[in-house]
Specification:
Elements: H1 9-35, H2 66-114, H3 130-179, H4 185-214, E1 220-223, H5 224-241, E2 244-250, E3 254-257, H6 259-275, E4 282-290, E5 294-301, H7 336-346, E6 350-355, E7 361-368
Parallel strand pairs: 2-4
Antiparallel strand pairs: 1-3, 4-5, 5-7, 6-7
Helix pairs in contact: 1-2, 2-3, 3-4, 4-7, 5-6, 6-7
Length: 380
C-alpha cells in the first residue's frame, strides 16, 4: 500500500520525550518567576540609615532588584532549556530505539513471512511485557500458518494424485478398446462405469470438504439422535451384507448446524465403522446423549486392534489407514474422517479418536448443546 512519507515512530517518540522535558523545565522556571521573582521590588531598594565599620566610610550594601535578578536569571534559564532540549532529543532517540527494537524484529519476521518464509520465529526474550506477548502471539500465528500451508500443499498433491488415477485408468481402458475392437465392450464399459463412479465420489467429497471448511451453510436446530437413526437405517443393507449389526441407543441431543452436513458426518462414521470391522459377526453402536454444555455422539465398532501411532493420522485427507483391516475391498476415497473432522470443526465441536483394547475404534464427537425450546403449553 502506497502511503505518504512521514515521521517514523522513533522520531515521534524522540520529539515527545524532548517536548516533555522542555515543558517540564519551562514550568519549573515559571514557578520560580511566579513564586519568587514577582515579589522582589523593582527600582532602588532603600535599606535605611547605614553605619559602616569602625574607622571606615559609610557604604550601604548592594541589594539587587527585580531587573537585576531578571538579567542574571533569564540567560541561565534559556541555557538550561537549551540543554534540556538537546538532552531530551539525544536521550529520547536512544530510549525510543531500545523501546522499538522488539517491533523491528517483529516487522522483519512479518516481511520474511510475506516473502514465503514461514519457518522463521521471533523468540523474543526478556520479561513478560506487551512486546513479549505480541511476539509470542506472532510466533503462534506463524506456526499455525506454516502447519496450515503444509497441510494444504499435501492435500493439493494428494488430491491431484487421486484425481489423476481414475482418469489414467479411463484413458487406458479406452486405448485398449480402440486397439482391440474384438474385446468384450461390455466388460470395458462396466470398468469405465466403476472408475467414473469413483471419480465422481471423490469430486463430491472434495466439494463437501471445501463447503465445510468455508462454513457456508445455514444453521438450524438439529437432533443428533434422529440423525443417527437415519444414517443407520440408510446403511443397514450395507451392514447386513457384511454381517455387521448396527445399534442406535441414547437420548435426544440437540445442537445447531447444517442437518445435511451433520447427516453426512454421522453417515461417514457409521460407514467407516462397518468397513473397518471384523470379517463377520461384528457390531457398530451409535450412542447419543446430552450434557449441560454439549451434545455427544459416540460411534463404537468392533474390529482388529488399531495401533496407537496410527490414530492421529486417520483424520488426515487421503489417509486410509493402511494398517487397518477391512471386511472387504471397499477402498473409499480416503476423505471419510477428514470430512468428519472438517464438519465438526465448522460446528465448533471436538473430535476424539480412541482405540479400543479389544479391537476397533471409539469415536466421540462433542458439539455445542442447544436447549430445546419449551412449547406454549409448558411441555418440551
Amino acid at each position: 500500500m502506497n502511503r505518504q512519507p512521514g515521521l517514523s515512530a522513533r522520531m515521534k517518540l524522540t520529539l515527545s520525550y524532548a517536548a516533555f522535558l522542555l515543558v517540564a523545565g519551562t514550568l519549573l522556571l515559571a514557578v520560580v518567576w511566579v513564586f519568587l521573582l514577582r515579589y522582589v521590588p523593582d527600582g532602588t531598594i532603600d535599606v535605611g540609615p547605614w553605619r559602616g565599620p569602625r574607622g571606615g566610610e559609610p557604604s550601604p550594601p548592594f541589594i539587587p532588584n527585580r531587573s537585576d535578578l531578571q538579567r542574571a536569571f533569564v540567560p541561565r534559564a534559556l541555557q538550561a532549556l537549551g540543554f534540556l532540549l538537546v538532552f531530551g532529543l539525544l536521550g529520547g532517540w536512544i530510549l525510543a530505539g531500545r523501546m522499538l527494537a522488539p517491533l523491528t524484529r517483529i516487522a522483519d519476521a512479518a516481511r520474511l513471512a510475506a516473502n514465503g518464509s514461514l519457518s522463521h520465529r521471533i523468540r523474543l526474550g526478556g520479561s513478560n511485557d506487551e512486546f513479549r506477548e505480541l511476539a509470542d502471539a506472532f510466533d503462534i500465528m506463524l506456526e499455525q500458518l506454516e502447519s496450515h500451508v503444509a497441510e494444504q500443499q499435501r492435500f493439493a498433491a494428494n488430491a491431484s494424485h487421486e484425481l489423476r488415477t481414475p482418469l489414467a485408468i479411463s484413458r487406458t481402458l479406452l486405448d485398449v478398446a480402440r486397439n482391440d475392437p474384438a474385446r468384450d465392450q461390455g466388460e470395458v464399459l462396466d470398468r469405465l462405469h466403476t472408475v467414473n463412479t469413483r471419480a465422481i465420489d471423490l469430486t463430491e467429497a472434495l466439494l463437501l470438504l471445501s463447503r465445510a471448511d468455508r462454513q457456508s451453510f445455514t444453521r438450524e436446530p438439529v437432533d443428533l439422535s434422529l440423525i443417527a437413526e437415519e444414517a443407520a437405517e440408510t446403511l443397514l443393507p450395507f451392514a447386513e451384507h457384511r454381517q455387521i449389526t448396527v445399534e442406535v441407543t441414547g437420548e435426544r441431543a440437540q445442537t445447531v448446524g447444517s442437518e445435511a452436513l451433520l447427516l453426512r458426518m454421522v453417515t461417514n462414521l457409521v460407514q467407516n465403522a462397518i468397513v473397518h470391522n471384523l470379517p463377520a459377526g461384528g457390531s457398530v453402536t451409535v450412542h447419543t446423549r446430552a450434557l449441560h454444555d454439549a451434545s455427544v455422539l459416540q460411534v463404537e465398532n468392533t474390529g482388529h486392534r488399531v495401533p496407537e501411532e496410527l490414530v492421529p493420522t486417520l483424520t488426515e485427507p487421503f489417509q486410509r489407514g493402511t494398517q487397518r483391516i477391512r471386511t472387504d475391498q471397499h477402498a473409499g476415497v480416503g476423505l471419510g474422517l477428514a470430512i468428519v473432522q472438517s464438519i465438526v470443526r465448522a460446528h465448533g465441536g471436538t473430535l476424539d479418536l480412541a482405540p479400543r483394547l479389544s479391537g476397533g475404534l471409539l469415536v466421540t464427537i462433542r458439539l455445542p448443546h442447544q436447549p430445546q425450546a419449551p412449547s406454549p403449553n409448558g411441555f418440551h
